[in-house]
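Late entry, evening session. Most of the bench is empty. Finally got around to the prediction I had been postponing all week. Sequence below, unchanged from the version circulated by S.P.
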Amino acid sequence: MASEEIGYRGPTACAAAGITYRQLDYWARTGLVEPSVRPAHGSGTQRLYSFRDVVVLKIVKRFLDTGVSLQNIRTTVQHLREGGFRDLERMTLMSDGATVYECATPDEVHALLQGGQGIFGIAVGVVWRDVESALSQLHGERVDTGETLIGPNPADELARRRNRAV
C-alpha cells in the first residue's frame, strides 16, 4: 500500500518519532508540525499524521536534542513546508546551533565544513529509514476507510476486533 494511503494516530507517531504525546500535541497546536492527513476538530477527534509528518517530527526531535532553539527549528520546518517537503529523503540538514542549513549535495556540506566552526548534521535519509522501520512495527490506518492496518504482531486482539467491527 502506498504511504499516501496510510495515516498514523498520535500515539503511533510519537512512538516512531521518539517524542511524548505532550510534545506532539503542543507542536500541532502551535503549528510547528501539523498533521497533514487529518487535523483534530475538537475534543475526541483523532489527528492523523502522514509518513512525511512523522519524519519531520523525528527531525524536530533530533534538532531539539542537539540544542537548536525552537525558533530556529520553526524557521527550518516552515522552509521545508514551503518547498513541499520534496527530496526530503535526499537532503542533509546542517546546523551550527544558531542557524540551520539545507544541503542537497556533498559540495554544499563540504562548503559549510570549510568555515571552521562546529557543525552537526542530520542525514534525513537515515531518519527516513528509521521512521520506516519503526512504523513497520506499529499500526497504521487506511486514510480512505479508517481500517486499522495491523503490524507484524498477530497477538493484537484489539486491532483485530476493530477491523471486524468496521
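Two things to note before I forget:
Residues 7 and 50 are 5 Å apart (CA to CA).
The longest strand covers residues 6-9.
Will write this up properly tomorrow.
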